Amino acid sequence: MTSSETSRYVRLHVELVLEVTEPEALTDAALARIDTDDYMPDEERTHAGSAVTEDPAEALAYLVDPFDLVSEVPGVELAQASWSCEHIDYDPDAEEWDLGEEDGDMDVQADGGPRP
What is the pLDDT of residues 75-101, one digit of tens each? Predict the structure, then answer.
């Protein structure tokens, strides 16, 4: 394919595993985001507040916005996004969690640099 035949659209797969070290801070931040959302209807605000209070994964889902991840990237515009959060059992030494560098994937450190 030549560059003129290549699709303009690129699917970016990102998988993050986060450790919730301060669930109360996470919940408070999500509640603050919900309270300041001028476009959220009151009924949805009540439901969202309840969900983030009961589950840190829900709180995280309210705080992570794919648009924020790419809004500063020059030359791209977010066309579509979906995301979810779930509780998992995590063992960093297990083979299933070795993200490796296959197919252009890059394993990075928490500071954003590539792992050696």
Answer: 999 999 998 899 999 988 888 777 665
Which tens digit of pLDDT belongs to each residue from 5-39?
778 999 998 888 999 999 999 999 999 999 999 99
Q: Is residue 16 part of a domain?
A: no
Joined tokens for residue 9: 């659209």
CA distance 23 to 41: 26
The residue ranges of DSSP E strands in the chain, in sequence order, are none
Domain encompassing residue 94: 23-104
Q: Is residue 112 part of a domain?
A: no
Distance between CA atoms of 13 and 82, rounded to whole angstroms?
11
Q: pTM for the whole thing? A: 0.70
The answer to whether the beta carbons of residues 60 and 29 sit under 8 Å apart is no
> In total, how many domains does the chain have?
1
